[in-house]
Here is the input.
Amino acid sequence: MKRTKIKALLASQETGQQVCVKGWVRSFRNNQFIAINDGSTVKTIQAVAALDKFDDATRKRLTVGAAVGIVGELVESQGKGQSVEIVANEITIYGDADPEKYPLQPKKHSMEFLREISHLRFRTNTFGAIFRIRHAAAFAIHQFFNDKGFVYLHSPIITGSDAEGAGEMFRVTTFEPNEAPLTEDGKIDYKKDFFGKETNLTVSGQLEAELGALAFSDVYTFGPTFRAENSNTSRHLAEFWMIEPEIAFAGLQENMDLAEEMLKYIVKYALEHCADDIEFLEKRLLDEEKSKPMAERSPMPLKEKLEFCLDNDFVRLTYTEAIEILRNSKPNKKKKFKFPIDEWGADLQSEHERYLVEKHFKKPVILTDYPASIKAFYMRLNEDEKTVAAMDILFPGIGEIVGGSVREERYEVLKGKMEAQDISPEEMSWYLDTRRFGTCPHAGYGLGFARMILFLTGMGNIRDVIPFPRTPGNAGF
Here is the structure.
């Protein structure tokens, strides 16, 4: 028989038909009740294996984790917790799972333990829910931009430029360690390397997206980016995915409007299409936080938090206004901030961002007009010549989730900023050409996809919302 996915079967409720499901055993109770999950939903379907129908040898193989196929009649369930079940006529066991060795037995497992066996963690309810939501969010992003007429560009993963000017990059080379050819002054001669120049893994697709925007008007990239930053925190990864739209003939207002609309679209799509998974993760979070002090618990349940973001306009204020709020805040006056706010020009940390969102405004916040000295070279200098037309969007529980700006479209200003930051105008001549030929006001931003999934799922560690996390000392698979 043709296989039917469990999600479709639970939705149809058409009893009396012969059905075939295939999946993995989650539990086998009383030697006859098999709970099966196939990954299409967080829910399982129960199959009843009558005691007089299947031999003991078959029953012994119906262990947790075994891959099975069940053919039988879909009937109304007599038990609690499900509306339908399958009366099994045929059972096929495709793959055994020795209960003495299979580590995912039906009990509570810590996130730390599951990271140790991350090749199997997809099989748990928690990670099944997380990655179905991740899929839905990725689809929603593509649908959002497609419906708006944006062109999807694939920016290069190997690049010769450092978009951020940060210098924290992974080098790409074919030279053997300790055998790289040297120039006369003792430096590595990258002219003899594979690409004929020094190259690295990209930190951003933004600069290439700008090239596209100045031809197609509206473009976006969605791909992997890399940071060789030795940060072992719950918010940092060495490899992560970024969504980076770029819009021509646009300023800061249009940029903020697009980002807010996109974020709300993703949240709405997840609420509508992942209701069961969000409900499951909400219950998981509530259960996990029972042992925490009230001050450390989430301010609202997961679904309520997501709906709250939809129902409220994001607060918009300047960096200067935010500094005044932070400087006069109780945590700052009582020296409870790890990084005290003393004067204008301070680079805001996560604790400051979360205070603004979670304590002061209790809404998502968009901060604008940051000091030029703490922002990247490509951001447009404001008329005060002290600040740039930048924006960061801050979310509860996350801090910064989006960073963007109006791009400096004036050739001489951009060239001067590059020289001031020791970025070679010659090496970036291709970028400067966009300002020499048909330049126009344009803007864009980057959304860290993993941080978006943290927000949608309520998870606390970014390593748990990406399938194969790359962090300092860890590059499994």
Q: What stands out?
A: DSSP finds 14 helices and 16 strands in the chain.
